[in-house]
Design brief:
Blueprint lengths: L1 H33 L3 H4 L1 H10 L12 H12 L2 H14 L2 H26 L2 E2 L5 E2 L2 H9 L4 H35 L3 H16 L2 H30 L4 H13 L13 H16 L6 H5 L7 H29 L10 H11 L4 H32 L4 H11 L10 H25 L1 H31 L1
Antiparallel strand pairs: 1-2
Helix pairs in contact: 1-6, 1-12, 1-18, 3-14, 4-10, 4-14, 4-16, 5-12, 5-14, 5-15, 6-7, 6-11, 6-12, 6-14, 7-8, 7-18, 8-9, 8-16, 8-18, 9-16, 9-17, 10-14, 10-16, 14-15, 15-16, 16-17
Protein name: Amino acid carrier protein
GO molecular function, one term: amino acid:sodium symporter activity
Membrane topology: Multi-pass membrane protein
């Protein structure tokens, strides 16, 4: 077993480092330039579309555009927003947060592209549900000769979910509940399995409804707590931002419990943790966006790209600034423990509970969101008859992550490797289909601009009369 883990670790170091990170970042920047920075310039418009997406409509799809975004965010807003940010700062210093911001801005173009293709090439299964994602736009967008690549994506996605979206998440919930409230981890695992099972019984519509309520609630609560800390320490924010920017381009010396970090470490861990947090380019979230009730693929794309903005630019920034302002980054702690120290220092007596409950809720929603992703990958490979057995296995494996003899490090390693292997077929498809994407985007934004110009001229005419 140790030999196998060693081989996986070596393979993971190659795939997740020198291959995947440049490919993810390069694809994001290539698409950003191809869209002429439209995905960043249209953020206000995207928020307007997101809010409008809460309304009921008669367009094709299974769930509202807003709930599709919340389903996607239920999987992305997770341990990466609390533990992942802290890990990036632990290894890369405060400058890692700057590189998280940069890769998130580029990732908005990637996420926009994924959602556009997901809606463009989606189809209905034999049960009447809308399905889509990388396996479909690889197969149908690139042609039959690329079916093998679609098959590889679906296979990697099916297995990756059981690690990164199931057992490691249930372990995070159990660990948070055990350390803060003294609840037995196995009991937490069983309760989590029951809750997830009840949600999965209702399929995508139930998942969308739960995500549409739970994700905004937990994100707003965590954001409010972090914002309160920043308001109480507002005088420290300018110096914290200055430290982040300076550390992004200058090595940081060891101080307190911080071992020091190079510029390369800040860049590497900032980019890696940013991608892990928002999943732009991984090919997971377009599976959720394919179910949205919409007749416009690019309109759903504008909503989808907000997932990256809200996940990294907003929530991860809150965590990072709190860690830096409170000095927790020099505590020697790592992961969720560092975030807990930061919040507890700022809000004594309640800070650790905010982190623990937030971590538990984030991990719970990740289990729900990833269950849908892995289920659709399984369905692509084996058909609708595989849905019920998949859901049963998914729920039964949730408590396994809480067992004391499980090697969580090995699970993370295998899951990270499979996650990286998911991304590669997806990124290849995005690059090959980029001419189609650029054409769709140009036509859409031209129509939007024409419509806004017409409304403005009409308003001016009416005002003149």
């Amino acid at each position: 077993m140790d030999g196998f883990i060693g081989l996986v670790k070596q393979f993971n170091n190659i795939v997740s480092g020198p291959i995947l990170l440049p490919l993810l970042a390069g694809t994001g920047f290539f698409l950003t330039i191809g869209y002429r920075f439209m995905t960043q310039r249209r953020i206000p418009y995207a928020f307007k579309m997101m809010w409008r997406g809460r309304r009921k409509n008669n367009e094709a799809g299974d769930i509202s555009p807003f709930n599709a975004l919340m389903t996607a965010m239920s999987a992305t807003v997770g341990t990466g927003n609390i533990a992942g940010v802290a890990t990036a700062i632990f290894f890369g210093g405060p400058g890692a947060l700057f590189w998280m911001w940069l890769i998130a801005l580029a990732g908005m173009a990637t996420k926009f592209s994924e959602a556009v293709l997901a809606v463009r090439f989606r189809e209905r299964d034999s049960l009447g549900n809308y399905i889509g994602g990388p396996m479909y736009y690889i197969r149908d967008g690139l042609g039959k000769k690329w079916k093998w690549l679609a098959f590889l994506f679906a296979g990697f996605g099916m297995f990756a979910g059981f690690g990164i979206g199931n057992t490691v998440q249930s372990n995070s919930v159990a660990d948070a509940m055990s350390h803060t409230f003294g609840i037995d981890p196995i009991l937490t695992g069983i309760v989590t399995a029951v809750l997830v099972g009840l949600v999965l019984l209702g399929g995508i519509k139930r998942i969308g409804e739960v995500a549409g309520r739970l994700v905004p609630f937990m994100a707003i609560c965590y954001f409010a707590a972090g914002l309160l800390i920043l308001v109480l320490n507002c005088s420290e924010i300018p110096s914290a931002i200055a430290l982040i920017v300076e550390s992004a381009f200058t090595p940081v010396s060891a101080a307190g419990g911080f071992a020091g970090a190079s510029v390369w470490a800040a860049m590497r861990f900032g980019i890696a943790r940013g991608i892990f947090s928002n999943e732009a380019g991984m090919g997971s979230s377009p599976i959720a966006h394919a179910t949205a009730k919409t007749d416009s693929a690019p309109r759903q794309g504008t909503i989808a790209m907000l997932g990256v903005f809200l996940d990294t630019i907003v929530i991860c920034t809150i965590t990072g600034l709190v860690i830096i302002i409170t000095g927790a980054w020099q505590s020697g702690k790592n992961g969720a423990a560092m975030s807990a120290v930061a919040f507890e220092n700022a809000l004594p007596g309640v800070g650790q509970y905010i982190v623990s409950i937030g971590l538990a809720l984030f991990a719970l929603t990740t289990i729900i969101g990833w269950s849908f992703y892995s289920e659709k990958c399984t369905q692509y490979l084996f058909g609708v008859r595989a849905i019920t057995p998949f859901r049963m296995i998914w729920v039964l494996l949730i408590p396994v992550g809480t067992l004391p003899f499980i090697d969580l490090g090995a699970l993370w390693l295998v899951a990270d490797t499979l996650n990286a292997l998911m991304a590669i077929p997806n990124l290849i498809a995005l690059l090959l289909l980029s001419p189609v994407l650029f054409k769709i985007a140009r036509e859409y934004w031209a129509d939007v601009d024409a419509g806004e110009k017409a409304r403005t001229e009409k308003g001016e005419t009416e005002a003149a009369q």
